[in-house]
Amino acid sequence: MFLVYKPILHRFFMKILSLLATLILSVPELSGQASDFSKDFSPLWNRACDYTLEVAEMMPEENYSYKPTEKVMSFQAELLHVTLNLYGLCSRYIKGEKVQTPDKNKEYTKKELITELKKAFDYVNETLETISDSETREEIKLFTGDYYKKERVFYLMRDHMTHHRAQMITYLRMNNIEPPSYRGW
Fold it and tell me: What are the Cα distances from residue 171, in Å, to 42, 54, 65?
């Protein structure tokens, strides 16, 4: 009698497994698929990263220490500041972890600094690829004392990078270097 029911049970379990697989794959948080926020934000983020890298590459290494006045950061310091900020905001406010960051007191070569910047971009990208929509909606307390959703921290990172990239573009122009064309949305 059990032999008669075996094919029926097999079909039943196969249908259950198929249904479970369909459900899991339809929920991004369970399937490992990028969240809707990630899908929307990633292209903007990657364009901003590419633009910043192009600015970093355009400045000759001998001008990396350039700064127009004593009261402002050098070109190198601007890049390092962006790098450290990306690690700090992403690790502390989005991931809630502590990560090893570049030494803020080291004098980097152009190649070393660009490598560190790329690592910071990768760190943020890895976070974007794995964060769920529900995580992006979690509220956290920022250094300002205000509460914001985690997704706002991604926009803060992009805005901060834009601010410092604009300063670096000015440094390029002050050294008679034509900066790369603007990349918008």
Answer: 28, 14, 11
Per-residue pLDDT tens digits of the chain, which is 185 residues long: 555 556 665 565 556 555 554 454 445 444 445 579 999 999 999 999 999 999 999 999 999 999 999 999 999 999 999 999 999 999 999 999 999 999 999 999 999 999 999 999 999 999 999 999 999 999 999 989 999 999 999 999 999 999 999 999 999 999 999 999 987 66
Distance CA 101, CA 98 (A): 9
Domain boundaries along the sequence of the chain: 1-33, 34-174
Report the C-alpha gap between 183 and 125 in whole angstroms.
19
Q: How far is CA 9 from the centre of its chain?
A: 48
Q: In what helix (H) or strand (E) does residue 148 lie, and over which residues does it extend?
A: strand 147-149
CA distance 137 to 13: 37
DSSP 3-state of 54: helix
* Dihedral-angle region of residue 16 (phi above 0 means left; psi in -120 to 50 means alpha; beta otherwise): alpha
- For the entire predicted model, the pTM comes to 0.80
Going by the DSSP 8-state scheme, the letter that residue 63 receives in this structure is G
Candidates 2.115.10.20, 1.10.760.10, 1.10.10.10, 1.20.120.450; CATH matching 34-174: 1.20.120.450
